[in-house]
Design a protein that fits this description.
By secondary structure, the protein is an alpha/beta fold. It is built from nine helices and ten strands. Strands 1, 2, 3, 4, 5, 6, 7, 8, 9 and 10 form a ten-stranded mixed sheet that branches. The relative contact order is 0.18. The mean pLDDT is about 90.
Length: about 240
């Protein structure tokens, strides 16, 4: 099982839905966990409107919401009679520094620090780093930088690295993944969100290239033929029901 944690106080929901969709199309069983204050993933998928269901299957992806911390995630799974080990990939979206302890942050296979250039998003990340490092006596964590609403990726990466420098004792492990989130992407996201679906074909080519890089962080390098299959939507329409 691969556990990927996306940290950051910015909206990354559509990118995590894309990632989970591609992994599902590769035949993997995916759990998407919304452990944010805003619960955008839960609203996008309709989970927030179905209070009697704690885990919803949305277009082949299991979605869990209203999760405060790691123990809450595990207990929620146990209440459903399930186990995290049932999944090939567990993708966690969080903006809470208290989501996990040092050991649990270390247990994640892949960690993404997600940012826009908004002061709110950047300084919330700095607060997260300060809180985590206050209680962390272990080895430095490794992060992949995910830059959203990106215009000049290299300049933004340099600015972020400098801003985080005094509070960042961890390691970046590869070049940043940058996503522009242009007008075409916004139009597609709004259409799909209200229709309860996701179709990669509607998004910008640059966004799909970034999604491929994101997906390959979990899968390793994918042949072009396999990636094209990931982008293809087999059927239209919404598909929601209680998971497990």
């Amino acid at each position: 099982m691969a556990k990927g944690i996306f940290i950051g106080a910015c909206d990354k929901s559509i990118h995590l839905i894309a990632l989970a969709t591609f992994l599902t199309r590769l035949g993997r069983k995916v759990l998407l966990v919304d452990a944010t204050i805003t619960q955008r993933l839960a609203y996008y998928t309709g989970l927030q409107q179905t209070r009697h269901i704690s885990i919803l299957n949305w277009n082949g992806i299991d979605v869990m919401g209203d999760t405060v911390n790691w123990a809450d995630m595990e207990q929620g799974m146990e209440r459903q009679g399930g186990d995290l080990g049932f999944y090939d990939d567990v993708i966690i979206d969080t903006d809470r520094s208290t989501f996990g302890n040092a050991k649990q942050w270390q247990a994640a296979d892949i960690r993404f620090m997600t940012h826009t250039l908004e002061r709110y998003a950047l300084y919330r990340n700095i607060e997260w780093l300060q809180t985590v490092q206050l209680h962390d006596n272990g080895e430095p964590l490794e992060f992949i930088s995910l830059q959203l609403r990106s215009v000049d990726p290299d300049a933004e990466a340099a600015f972020i690295a400098e801003l985080y420098h005094s509070g960042f004792s961890h390691r970046w492990v590869r070049e940043p993944i940058a996503i522009a989130e242009g007008e075409q992407d916004w139009i597609a996201q709004m259409e799909h969100e209200h229709e309860g679906r996701f179709e990669a074909a509607s998004y910008m080519r640059s966004t799909k290239r970034a999604w491929r890089a994101l997906t390959e962080c979990f899968t390793g390098e994918l042949p072009d033929k396999v990636w094209k299959r990931c982008l293809r939507t087999e059927k239209k329409g919404r598909n929601r029901y209680a998971a497990m």
